[in-house]
Amino acid sequence: MVARIIAGVATSHIPAVGAAWDNGKTEEPYWQPVFAGFERSKEWIAEVKPDVCIVVYNDHMSAFSLEIVPTFAIGCAAEFPIADEGWGPRPVPPVKGHPELASHLVQSLVLDEFDITIVNKMAVDHGLTVPLTLMFGQPKEWPCPVIPLAVNVVVYPVPTGHRCYRLGQAIRKAVGSFDQNLRVVIFGTGGMSHQLQGPRAGLINRPFDTRFLDNLTKDPEANVGIPHLEYLREAGSEGIEMVMWLIMRGACIASITCRRRTPRSATSSWKTSHLMRTVEHEDLRGRTRRLRSETSRCAEAHLRR
Ligand SMILES: [Fe+2]
Predict the structure, then answer these.
(1) DSSP sequence for 61-97
(2) How far is the CA of 242 from the centre of ligand 1 (A)?
(3) 55: CA distance to ligand 1 center in Å?
(4) Mind listing the domains of the chain with CATH numbers?
(5) Which of 160, 126, 138 is nearest to 17 (CA)?
(6) Contacts for 152 with CB less than 8 Å, ≥ 6 apart
(7) How many angstroms separate the alpha carbon of residue 190 from the centre of ligand 1?
(8) Which residues pair with 185 in a beta bridge?
């Protein structure tokens, strides 16, 4: 038996949501619709019970600084403390890692020519903890190990959407060659259109976001080609975080079903129904066939470029 990615989740990681939860404001009229939008997603993931989550997020100068800015970094530690972002660490449990799978991911991704930074010690900030809160609430311990995958979307040059999508595909291949029976859910996190500063602060471009979400399910290649300048113009200076959703999408197979989607502030989750069928099919025929099919799919993607 090998590990497999069974689903992807995409969600904002806005720090205000974490603060609202931590300060007991989830039932206030301003916040109630946001948290209500996550209820079914929480029920879904409680049923799915993933063995491991890979959370794609960006560090907000908590673990890294301008001194060192890795483009892609994978946390290989056994535990990740919660970062103090200026108001003390969020009152959430420390994040337990999965060093074995994380190290395997690094090995496979580097051999696939992605230059991953190995991180054996780092604190994780709201970029990672807010999505966990939204999907799991605030338990005494997180229900499964989490592998942090930090992406630089703060200091240019940031990776392209195409590079992120390809990384997602390589992650899927890497997970599928890990020799343990693990069911893995991958999170792509970050805000959709938003800008925090300057004359366009507060920007929201709903048509752009809606088109991105539509294509994320049906035609991800259409999103993959969006250049940096288009993100800046249409989605604002912080909208570039959306490239992290493409890592999640690349890690799912081409034909997926969107199970749940809520407007802007909530979440979307995709069940890789075709993947599930494929896995069942492939499990009958053994690992070699699975690896072959992965290899050919990656080769096709390479040829299309
Ligand atoms: Fe962010």
Answers:
(1) SSS-BTTB--SEEEE-SSEEPBPB-SS-B-SSPPEE-
(2) 10
(3) 13
(4) 4-299 (3.40.830.10)
(5) 126
(6) 58, 69, 70, 71, 72, 158, 159
(7) 5
(8) 7, 53
**Ligand 1 midpoint to CA 185 (Å):** 20
Q: Examine the pLDDT at 284 and tell me if it is beyond 90.
A: no
Q: pTM for this one?
A: 0.86
pLDDT at 115: 97
Q: What angle do CA 99, 134, 103 make, to 5 degrees?
A: 10
Active site residues: 126, 194
The pair of three-digit structure tokens given for residue 168, joined into one six-digit string: 């997602």
Instruction: State the pLDDT at residue 256.
Output: 76
The pLDDT score that the predictor gives to residue 257 is: 76
227-234 contact pairs (CB < 8 A, 24+): 227/160, 228/156, 228/158, 228/160, 234/193, 234/205, 234/208
Across 174-183, 215-224, 260-269, which has the greatest mean pLDDT? 174-183
Among positive and negative, which fits the CA dihedral 129, 133, 139, 143? negative
Nearest one of 210, 250, 208, 259 to 232, comparing CA atoms:
208
One-letter amino acid at 303 equals L
Can you tell me which residue has the tokens 């997020």?
Answer: 57
The number of angstroms, rounded, from the C-alpha of 229 to the middle of its chain's C-alpha atoms is 22
Q: Which residues contact 1 (CB under 8 A, 6 or more apart)?
A: 179, 180, 181, 283
* Model pLDDT for residues 65-120, shown as the tens digit of each residue: 999 999 999 999 999 999 999 999 999 999 999 999 999 999 999 999 999 999 99
Taking the centre of ligand 1 as the mean of its atom positions, its distance from the CA of residue 115, in whole angstroms, is: 22
Among 25-29, 46-50, 201-205, 288-292, which is the least confidently predicted range?
A: 288-292
290 — pLDDT class (breaks 50, 70, 90): very low
- Using CA atoms, how far apart are residues 104 and 110, in angstroms rounded to an integer? 10
